[in-house]
Amino acid sequence: MRLQRRCANTACSCNKGCSCGKTADGRCACTCHTISIDTVQKELPVVFVWKGEAEPEGIYVLGSWDRWSMGTELHKQADADKQYSCTIFLEPGFHHYKFVVGNEWKVAVDQPTQTDATGHLNNFIKVNVSN
Fold this sequence. Notes:
Elements: E1 2-4, E2 34-36, E3 44-51, E4 59-63, E5 72-73, E6 75-76, E7 83-90, E8 93-101, E9 104-106, E10 113-115, E11 121-127
Antiparallel strand pairs: 1-2, 3-7, 4-5, 4-8, 6-7, 8-9, 8-11, 10-11
């Protein structure tokens, strides 16, 4: 089954064919795209946590969910010393990720790790609908 919704706007600010813009978390807020009901996967909130010192350049998490192309900044948790977190909406499945602390790529030693096909050690998470 396919649904088609059309946007009344003519210019596109989110590069997806309309000018509906983006939500606060950077996702497209459009309702004008053709979608297949059978293939839509629900994105689920995943919390990423870094425990340790911060650098003036900040702490970011990058991952396989967007081909390592865009980092999301982690923010200090008010109720925890030396703990930083962010929430990213991800589709169900297996994802590799790493943290950039300052200008250095790091894995979190308190989270599961796995070596990928290119020999890089990464953290990983399996996102399930039941999570």
